[in-house]
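job 3f2a | input accepted
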Amino acid sequence: MTTPAPRPRRHRSKKKRITLALAPVAALAVIIPLMNQANASTPSEVTSDCSSDSDKLEKCEFVDVQAKANSLGPNERVSPVTQNCGTTTAATSTFNVSTSVTRVVQLQEGFTASADSSLGGSLFEIGAKFNTTEFKVSRDDKATGLAFSRSDTVQPDSIGFFMWSHKRTDVSGFLRATYKEEQDGQKVFFAPSDGGTSVHVFYPQILNNGTPDGRLWLRNVKCGTPEANGIINSGNSLRTEPGFNEGGDAVTDVEIPVSEIPAP
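job 3f2a | predicted structure (264 res):
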């Protein structure tokens, strides 16, 4: 009797076995850095968390890098418009002038950072550095204003009103946020970057009598011109206006000395 030949055994390749064993580990190694990267705070996230005083933060600080004093703020119309159109003589009119200034952070328009927030406390401390014997700055988020009545001359066939641009100390730097929990192996992040200067904090300058420092001027605009029509049609609403002596031929500006601005 012939003994049947043994059946050949099918062996799996050891190389394949090793490859299959390592594949899940390699995939896991790819996922981990991607997850860490997703949790890292971007500059926009840092800005958002600092603005909202997020409970994820241990603290948020403004770090100053450079400063410029006597920087002028926006040009604002600060009195109602008096019309003297169609006349050949000047007219005396009483103007009610009022405006206010406050510390503003250039994270978003009109953002002030309340004093009880982490960022607000940091801004107050930075502001103390720029309080000098030459001028004072408003360090907190409380508004400081001026309000008074004044009689002045409106030119023939013109409209008249008061303009104002406040003086401020422009401090630029960056935000440094410290988070309570580590993200991507670190707790400290910056916006926009460590040493950056794109975050601006404007500290209004205040005179010794408590009045905001700035430039106040009476503006006369010839009636019938596009400049005058635009102002009249705006119904005294806020508009972007040209600066002092920048209004063109139809506009006459007369600056009022700071000494003539009454204290609050």
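job 3f2a | The chain has a mean pLDDT of 86.
job 3f2a | closed
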